[in-house]
């Protein structure tokens, strides 16, 4: 290995010190020499953010110090850099109490809803779909928020199942198939 070359601690590839490694340590808090190559830093930053729905702090690959956002932006590939920017903006928007995302899976728009809980229906300014401000789901047409919550409780599902079984039992006891067409009928008299 030449004097101007160094081995990366992650991929074990030997690379040129001037072109294969960052010019300085990744964080001012890092006290170790720079031992991770540029390619591995880029892949590491991408791996941290892959499949995430929130902007993540990125630690130095050689220690546990958190990298400053400017360093993450500098060494991330363009696709990861764009994803990080989108996630960071989403995180800022979601910090606003009256901000709500459209519940339509095809939309992706969000907006501030000044009506708050007093006016729980949010009509998307982009696609027109309605979202429940309180529950952050598609508007539960025909149900108030309280009614929707009752229906979503696990014990409500049990009572729905109990009611269904009771109804089936009542039908079984009180109805008989029509002798000619076999449709279930309830006869008033003469069984």
Write the layout of secondary structure elements.
Elements: E1 5-7, E2 14-16, H1 17-20, H2 38-49, H3 69-75, H4 78-94, E3 99-101, E4 110-112, E5 121-123, E6 130-132, H5 145-152, H6 154-174, E7 176-177, E8 184-185
Antiparallel strand pairs: 1-2, 3-4, 5-6, 7-8
Structure description:
This protein is α+β, with helices and mostly antiparallel strands. The protein folds into 2 domains: 5-93, Herpes Virus-1 (2-Layer Sandwich); 97-148, no CATH class. Helices cover 36% and strands 12% of the residues. It contains 6 helices and 8 strands; from the N terminus they run ββααααββββααββ. It has helices at 17-20, 38-49, 69-75, 78-94, 145-152, 154-174, and strands at residues 5-7, 14-16, 99-101, 110-112, 121-123, 130-132, 176-177, 184-185. A two-stranded antiparallel sheet has the order 1-2. A two-stranded antiparallel sheet has the order 3-4. The protein is elongated, with a radius of gyration of 30 Å. The N and C termini lie far apart (100 Å). The mean pLDDT is 85.
Q: In percent terms, what proportion of residues is strand?
A: 5-15%
CATH class of the largest domain: Alpha Beta
Q: Biggest β-sheet, characterized?
A: 2 strands, antiparallel
Fill in the CATH topology of the largest domain: Herpes Virus-1
User: Radius of gyration, Cα only, in angstroms?
Assistant: 30 Å
**Could you say what the CATH architecture of the largest domain is?**
2-Layer Sandwich
Shape: elongated
The overall strand count is 8
Helix content: 25-40%
Spans of at least 5 consecutive residues with low confidence:
none
What is the domain total for the residues? 2
Widest β-sheet, arrangement of strands: 1-2
Q: In whole angstroms, how far apart are the ends?
A: 100 Å
Structural class: alpha+beta
> How do the helices and strands follow one another from N- to C-terminus?
EEHHHHEEEEHHEE
Number of helices: 6
User: Which whole number gives the mean pLDDT?
Assistant: 85
